[in-house]
Every structure is written in structure tokens, then in C-alpha cells.
Design goal:
The chain is mainly β. The protein is built from one helix and nine strands, in the order H-E-E-E-E-E-E-E-E-E. It has a nine-stranded antiparallel sheet with strand order 6-5-4-3-2-1-9-8-7, with no helix packed on it.
Length: 169
């Protein structure tokens, strides 16, 4: 009887693990900082030539949360979500962000006129919008007030190019 209960309990765990909600589609890759303006003078912010890891979680279904980037770099990391009313990054728009620097200090920024995000997606031939089955995404973005935590970094604008592949979860 005890062995039977154990087998049933183990089978229940295996079956329940298969019924868990699927992770949202995520694309992961590398971004390259291709340009910074003169306001990015603090070396702990970003420099041309930096390579960072990026994850992109797009709003695909109407019930999904807003588009988001999670960026992990050599000096800091950040989570950015679009503040656009349609929930998607676009050619123009604003963002919300949480930045963490190399000293584990964080700051949260809201969508002000300086926190701009101009994001262009390039998709494979024949693909017009990101879907859960899109394999590759190329992103070119210009982000205003990059890691703006004090007047030292105010107005820092960073342009990056990123190549991402859909992560298999």
C-alpha cells in the first residue's frame, strides 16, 4: 500500500509539472553599443564598443504585459518597459525603467519627456510582426536618459544594435 501511494504521488508530481503555465516567449542575444552622445561621460554608464546581454519579451497577445528589455552589462543592468499606450516599443515613445549599477544601487525612472525610446525591429523575410514562433529578431534602438540616476548622467543617449534568437524554454 505504501509503495502504491508513493508511485501515485510521484506520477502526480510528473503530471502536474507538465500542466504548468508556459513561460512567455523570450528572445535572447547580444547588443553592441554603437553610439553615445557627449552627455555619457561617466565611464560607468556605457561606452561605444560595449557588448551587453539582452532579453526581449514582446507584447504578443492583448493580455500580455508591455514590451520589455532586460539588459545585463559589464557596469550595470536594467529592466525597461514601454510606456506607449499600445504596450509596444516603436519608432517613438517613452519608457519606464529600473536601473542597477555596479555598486547595487538602484533607481526607478518613469516616463518623462527625457526618457525616450526609439526602437526599430527587423524581422525575417515574410514576417511582419513578432509572434510566438518568430525565430530571429534584430533590434536597433536609441534610448534617451540611459541610466540616468543623477545630474552626472542626465541626457545620456545610447544607440545599440542587437541580434536575438527565440529562446527554447
Amino acid at each position: 500500500m505504501t509503495i502504491t501511494r508513493g508511485i501515485l504521488a510521484a506520477a502526480g508530481l510528473v503530471l502536474s509539472a507538465g500542466c504548468a503555465a508556459a513561460a512567455p516567449p523570450t528572445w535572447q542575444g547580444t547588443l553592441y553599443v554603437s553610439a553615445v552622445n557627449s552627455a555619457c561621460t561617466n565611464a560607468t554608464v556605457a561606452a561605444v564598443g560595449d557588448f551587453w546581454t539582452i532579453e526581449y519579451r514582446p507584447k504578443i497577445a492583448t493580455t500580455d504585459p508591455a514590451d520589455a528589455f532586460h539588459i545585463l552589462g559589464p557596469r550595470s543592468s536594467m529592466l525597461m518597459t514601454t510606456a506607449n499606450s499600445n504596450g509596444k516599443f516603436g519608432a517613438t515613445g517613452l519608457y519606464n525603467g529600473t536601473w542597477v549599477d555596479g555598486f547595487a544601487r538602484s533607481v526607478t525612472v518613469g516616463p518623462t519627456s527625457a526618457n525616450t525610446a526609439a526602437v526599430a525591429l527587423t524581422l525575417p523575410a515574410g514576417v511582419s510582426t513578432v509572434t510566438a514562433t518568430t525565430r530571429f529578431v534584430v533590434i536597433k534602438a536609441t534610448i534617451g536618459n540611459w541610466f540616468e540616476r543623477n545630474t552626472q548622467n542626465a541626457g545620456c543617449t545610447v544607440t545599440f544594435d542587437a541580434a536575438l534568437i527565440r529562446r527554447v524554454d
